[in-house]
Amino acid sequence: MKLTLKIWRQKSLKEKGRFETYKVEANPHMSFLEMLDVLNEELIAKKEEPVVFEHDCREGICGTCSMVINGEPHGPMGGTTACQLHMRHFKDGETIVIEPFRASAFPVMKDLAVDRSALDRIIQAGGYISVSTGAAQDANAVPIDKDTAGHSFDAAACIGCGACVAACPNASAMLFVSAKVSHLALLPQGKVEAKRRAQAMVKQMDLEGFGMCSNITACEAECPKGISVENIARLNREYLSSALGSETVA
Amino acid sequence: MSWFSDFLTSSIGRKVVMSLTGLFLILFLLVHLAGNLQLLPFLAHDPAGDPGKAFNLYSKFMTSNPLIKTVSYLLYASILIHAIQGWLLWSKNRKARGNQGYAVKVNKVVGTNSFAASNMGWLGTIIFIFLAIHMYQFWLQMKLGHLPMAYYDGVEVKNLYSIVAEAYESLGYVIFYVVSMVVIAYHLNHGFQSAFQTLGINHHKYTPFIKWVGKAYSILVPLGFAIIPIYMYFFM
Ligand code: SF4
Ligand code: FES
Q1: C-beta of A157 in contact with ligand 2 (< 6 A)
Q2: C-alpha angle A118/A120/A123, rounded to 5°?
Q3: How much is the pTM?
Q4: What was the pLDDT predicted at A234?
Q5: Ligand 2 contacts CB of residue A57 (under 6 A)
């Protein structure tokens, strides 16, 4: 299939970027990233700069492959990362616009690669369990009902890709933070530090310059892992009960 | 900073302020509508008598009852806080979004109105302008008292009805009013359910009901307001 690509090219953080147009011939069985690989091989052969894009696992679990394809983070397929998106979902002769994730907290480093370390710093602020939880057999001895484990697992499916931020008109990271807070707060081991965690992670989220959630739900619509905004309501509850109802100050 | 100001200036704290003031304003709209409906002759107590009587007596009651007076200060505060906080949120969120926008952007959402949800700032701004005009025109005149008087059973009452009726004689004003109600409808359509989500109220059993009530409210209440000038323009 013959495709026209309009790709955002930007040399560095400081320099201004612009769209460049490329022609590429792809196979419908290729993934979106493999199609970009083909383009890059051709660019390298012509001694031109290849398009920088981030990727790692290429199987939808690492959350690295960040790009906005035809106006949607990770492209038009619901519940699919860019690396798992296949070219058969595009039409022969189609023009595809590829842009980096846009948000003040995600500065563009080069072409399609943005700096998402703000999300890491939010995790560092409290997205972990520091109390001793024992070994695997100890976890098995803790009774958890199936539904609660299910909700926690659904939240844990978040791969930290940042598509929620990219999709949100407010560039809010609430879906990401709510997934991380929910995942831990629902389980007995995570509950122990839930109060401090909710305050610390929200505080860091605010410091990083993400926007404030106005419940638009574009995040859920574009999340490749189907994280629900129900988690945002849970984060709000966790935060309110922690900030107003506990002695903890983070 | 104290823990409380930390809370109020956090992103979630700011949203809670929006939610609580918004819910109070939503409730107020019902009270306001109940009063306005008395402008309609077939809903007033005395269909045959003075068309302004029910409305004027109601306005008199609303501006003199000490309890309602106290609540009205809460109302003015809510309007201001909701507007100022909303504007702050809007400008901070634009800053967070950054200067470089997307060349192509698809606006998909889940379970809300995409247009309303992503334009709350603009919708709110229009409502604020409407409110400023509206309050100058009626509220301020009522307060400063440049109004003709009406007499009911020997009691002197400000004839607010007369300036309302006069305003509704102008087609331009009626259109402005009706358009403003459409804007309010959209603002409520997203705002109603959003207020609950912000407070953390999202529940498999109750959220579908809240969303349903929100939708019905956002259509019926602005419709109720809009019907009055339309009726008075054409039939009175
Ligand atoms: S919530 Fe979804 S969109 Fe956001 S970071 Fe996690 S997986 Fe990505
Ligand atoms: S490359 Fe790992 S999720 Fe796409």
Answers
A1: no
A2: 115
A3: 0.95
A4: 98
A5: yes
Tokens of B211: 């969303």
Does residue B46 carry a pLDDT above 70? no
Calpha distance B153→A22 (Å, rounded): 84
Q: Is the CB of A81 under 6 A from ligand 2?
A: yes
Residues A220 and A126 in one domain: yes
Same domain, A23 and A70: yes
Structural domain includes residue A249: no
| CA A40 / ligand 2 centre spacing (Å) | 18
User: Of A110, A143, A173, which residue constitutes the final position of a domain?
Assistant: A110
Please give the residue of chain A at the shortest CA–CA distance from B109: A218
What pLDDT was estimated at residue B45?
Answer: 61
In chain A, how many domains are there? 2
Q: Give the range of the structural domain holding residue A162, as residue numbers without chain letter.
A: 116-244
Are residues A157 and A226 located together in one domain of the fold?
A: yes
**Closest chain B C-alpha to A101 CA, distance in angstroms:** 9
Residues of B in contact with A19 (CB under 8 A): 103
Q: Which atom of ligand 2 is nearest to the CA of A61?
A: 3
A contact residues 99-158, partner B, Cβ 8 Å cutoff: 99, 102-105, 108
The rounded Å distance from CA A72 to ligand 2 centre is 16
Q: Using a 6 Å cutoff on CB, does residue A221 contact ligand 2? A: no
Q: How far is Cα B164 from Cα B169, in angstroms, rounded to an integer?
A: 9
Each residue's pLDDT tens digit, B171-194: 999 999 999 999 999 999 999 999
Contact B108, B114 (CB under 8 A): yes
**H-type helices in chain B, by residue range?**
3-9, 11-36, 53-64, 66-97, 114-118, 120-134, 141-144, 160-167, 171-198, 207-235
In terms of Cα–Cα distance, which of B119, B97, B104 is closest to A166? B97
Q: What is the ipTM of this complex?
A: 0.93
Residue predicted with more confidence, B42 or A16: A16
**Domain contains A131:** yes
A94 with A167, same domain? no
CATH number at residue A61: 3.10.20.30
- What residues of chain A lie within 8 A of the CB of B190, using their CB? 215
Q: How far is CA A248 from the centre of its chain?
A: 29
Question: Please, how many CA atoms are within 13 Å of residue B114, restricted to the half-sphere of its CB?
Answer: 12
| Residues across chain B | 236
How do strand B149-152 and strand B155-158 relate by DSSP bridges? Answer: antiparallel
The H or E element containing residue A38 is helix A32-45
To the nearest whole Å, the CA of B181 is away from the closest chain A CA by 22
CATH number at residue A223: 1.10.1060.10
Contact state of B16 with A203 under an 8 Å Cβ cutoff: no
Residues of A in contact with B107 (CB under 8 A): 169, 218
